[in-house]
Design brief:
By secondary structure, the protein is of the alpha/beta class. The chain has one domain: 3-Layer(aba) Sandwich (Uracil-DNA Glycosylase, subunit E). Helices cover 31% and strands 13% of the residues. The radius of gyration is 16 Å and the shape is globular.
């Protein structure tokens, strides 16, 4: 995968470096995107940082109270997430932004480990169809079950249960990619509605296991 560079960035040395999850290790909200942007998080080393998708996402997270600032630039910009962790189905930038099934399988264990590690996970947001599909698969692999899963669609919700952990609500959202935001498929009010719903679900729950309030 790393050997196939995007033509526009053939001379860049950062291509192919994996990008870890970013945010609060005790988060109750998990966001699952597609993959690092070719000239965004692949360059900066932080999820959704350095490109237009991140501008949209972090502004929305800030408005919903999950981020301390709306701006993102690089890993030294002071951005901090509160009660939220951002991950992705793939950890390296795929050529053409189209990951193969084999590439997704190789990264899948990382997402499962994150779901397991989030002891008080309550809400998962799948950003885009691939992010949502990966989130669903990771929840199943981590021992969650869903009696009726709704098909992908912006705002769709599915409840997941676990025998030893709190229930989790999975929300689907259109991905904040330029393809969606420039065409009006996804608007800022639509994205705000997703995180307002997340906030409502978390507020209705109990405090975090680390004793911090909602």
């Amino acid at each position: 995968m790393a050997a196939e560079k995007k033509r526009a960035h053939l001379g860049e040395t950062y291509w192919g470096k994996p990008v870890p999850a970013f945010g609060d290790p005790a988060a109750r909200l998990l966001l699952v995107g597609l993959a690092p942007g070719a000239h965004g998080s692949n360059r900066t080393g932080r999820m959704f940082t350095g490109d237009a998708s991140g501008e949209w996402l972090y502004r929305a997270l800030f408005r919903a109270g999950f981020a301390n600032q709306p701006n993102q630039r690089d890993k030294q910009d002071g951005l901090v997430l509160r009660d939220a962790l951002i991950s992705a189905a793939l950890r390296c930038a795929p050529p053409g932004n189209k990951p193969t099934p084999a590439q997704l399988r190789r990264c899948f264990s990382h997402l499962v480990e994150e779901v397991v590690a989030l002891r008080d996970l309550r809400v998962v947001v799948g950003l885009g169809a691939i992010g949502t599909k990966a989130a669903v698969a990771a929840l199943y692999e981590a021992g969650y079950a869903c009696a009726k899963r709704e098909p992908f669609g912006h705002g769709a919700e599915s409840a997941f249960r676990h025998s030893a952990k709190p229930a989790v609500m999975l929300l689907s959202s259109y991905h904040p990619s330029r393809q969606n935001t420039n065409t009006g498929v996804l608007t800022e009010p639509m994205l705000d509605a997703i995180f307002a719903r997340c906030r409502l679900l978390l507020t209705a729950g109990t405090e975090r296991q680390d004793g911090q309030p909602a």
